[in-house]
Amino acid sequence: MNDIKKISSLHSTPEESSGFLLWRVSTKWRSSIEDILKPLNLTHPQFVVLATVWWLTKSSANVSQAEIGRHAGLDPNTTSQILRGLETKAFVARKRSADDRSKYPTLTIPGAECLARALPAVELADAQFFSVLNHDESTMLMKILQKLI
Prior knowledge:
Blueprint: H1 18-37, H2 44-57, H3 65-72, H4 76-88, E1 92-96, E2 103-107, H5 109-129, H6 135-148
Antiparallel strand pairs: 1-2
């Protein structure tokens, strides 16, 4: 029972841990985004993949499922599952390559219509969430996040 006293931390409180703070901020932010997406029949991961498909296919018609996953920071299995769910909702179509090894997702008309509603709503939610930061803090946060990525 005294084993709890053997546990040590570099921090005297959780609020001194950057990992803990990042967890708390990301959980709070994600919750605000999920509230926006629920009425649109999208989960947050589905929104990210849907938006990624749009961003990447704007300039290139054949973007592989693997490329979409890498850009979104998702492993191949998770990417495939999310795309399968988006395909079931008729938000994306996945065509196979000639060698039948790769899949190339594209937005469907219902997917584009959904994203046209979701993207501005998410961007507004982001703006509201981060509005507690002044311009310099916001710029610094973007630089920090980009560096961590």
